[in-house]
Amino acid sequence: MEERKGFGTNFGFLMAAVGSAVGLGNIWGFPNKMGASGGFTFLIIYLILAVLCGFIVMVGELAIGRKTGKGAVAAYHALSKKFKWMGWMGILSAFFILFFYCALGGYCIKYVILNVGDLFGAGFGAEAVYAAAGDTSKSLGDVVFNTFVGSSGEAIIFGLIFVVITMLIVLGGIGGGIEKVCSVGMPALFVMLLICIVRACTLDGAVAGLKYMFVPGWAVENGIIAEAPDFLTVLSTAGGQMFFSLSLGMGAMITYGSYLHKKENLQKNALLIIIMDTMVALMAGLCVMPARFALDPAGNIGGPKLLFITMQNVFHSMGTLGPIFGILFYLLVVFAAISSSISLLEVIVAHFVDDARDAGKGDKRKPYSILAAIAAGVLCVLVCLDGLGENGIAPATLLNIEASGWSDCWLDFFDCVAEGILMPLGALLMCICIGWELGPQIVDDECCLEGNRFKSKAFFNVCVKYITPIIMILILAGQLDSFFGLGWFS
Ligand code: PFF
Predict the structure, then answer these.
(1) Ligand 1 residue neighbourhood (C-beta within 6 Å)
(2) CA dist 62 to 34, 36, 75, 470, Å?
(3) Which ligand 1 atom is nearest residue 250's CA?
(4) What is the pTM (predicted TM-score) of this model?
C-alpha cells in the first residue's frame, strides 16, 4: 500500500499549525474585540479561556489525529461508535469557511495589486480608480471598495485565483506543499508584521489606538462604543474569538496531528501554537489600531471593512511611502489567509485521499484536491457575487425577510453556520467523546509516547471531563446569541 507521508520536521508542523491558526480572524477580529470588550481585562479572560478550553481541545484534537493517523472522519470512526459521524461535521465546517475565506483571500490579492498600481502610478492603482470614479463625497477606501465589490466579475476572478493557489499547495501534499510554504511564509509574515508595527506605532496620534486596545473603559469614555458589555458577553466574545482563531472544533488539528511523528511532544506543540497565535493577534492589533486611530479616526473598527476600506485610507494618507506599506500589509494578510485556507482544504482532501488509499486505489491526492477546490470555488463565487450584501442577492433579500446577523450577506450566513454552530458544537462533543466515551487515558497515553512526559495530565483530565464542556456550552450559547441575535446575553 502507498505510504502516508507526513511532516518532515517538527518546525514544519508547527509553522503549518500556526499558519492555520493565524488568519483573517487575528487581524480584524481580535484587536477590535479586545478594544470593545475591556482591553487588558479581555486579554486576561482570553488567556484563561485559552488555557482552560483552547489548550484542552488542541491537545485532544492533535492526540486523536496522531493516534489514529487518519483525517477527521476516519479518526472518529476508528475511535467511537457513537461519535463516528462527527468528522463529517468538520468537513462541512471546512467547506463553509472556505466559501467566504477564499472570496476574502481574493480581495486581499486585489488590494496588493491596487497598491502596486499606486506605487507605479498605474491606471489600475487605487488612486486612479478613485479619480476615475469622480466621487469625492466619499473616502478613497469607500469608493475603491464599492467599485471592486460592485464589479462581481473581478471579485470572482480574484476569489478563484485564491482557490487555485490553495489547491496547488494542497496538491503538493503535506511535506512537499503545505510544510514548505508555511516554513517560509510564516517567518516572512512575522517580519512584515514587525515592519508595519514600527511604522504604525510611530505615526502621530498612534497612541489612541494603543489606548483603545489596552486601557479598560477607554472605548466607552471616548464614545467608540456606547456602553461596556457585561461580563457574560465578554466571556462569550473572548471564547468565540479564541475558538475560531485557533482553528478548533472542525478537524483541522486532527488532520495536521495525523501527520505528526510519534516522537514529537504534543503538549509542547499545543502550547506553542496557542502562544504564537495570540502573539500574532496582539501584533496585528499593534499594527492596525494605531494606524486606524492616527490616520482614519472615523473609519471602521473591525471586520472586512476595517481591512479593505479603513486600512486603504490609511495607506492613502501616508503619502509616497503609502503604497509600499500597503503592499507589505496586504501581502502579509494574503499569507495569513493562504496558510489558513490550505488547512481547511486539507481537512477535506485528507479524508478522501485516506479512503482511496485504504481501498487500495493508490495516491489520489491530485484528483481529490482538484474536486474539493472546484466544490469550494462554486460557492465562493456566490460570496463574490454577493459583494458583502451590496449586490442585492443577500439571503435576507432572496427570502424577503428583515436583514439580521446571519442573513445580511452570504459571508455572514456561512460564517454563522460554521463559527456560530458547527465549530463550538464540534469542540463540545469532542470533549464529551474523550472525557466520557473513550476516557482521557487515551490522550494521556498518546502524549507519553517515546519517552515524552505529559506534565499537565491531571489538569487535562479534570478539564476535559468537567470544566471545558461547561465553558464550551457557554461559548456555544454566546455564539448562537451573537450570530442569530437571540437576545440571551444583553
Ligand atoms: N484560524 C483562522 C483565522 O483566525 O482566521 C480561521 C480558521 C482556519 C478556522 C482554519 C478553522 C480552520 F480550520
Answers:
(1) 20-21, 23-26, 97, 244-245, 247, 250, 252, 340, 343-344
(2) 28, 33, 11, 21
(3) 13
(4) 0.94
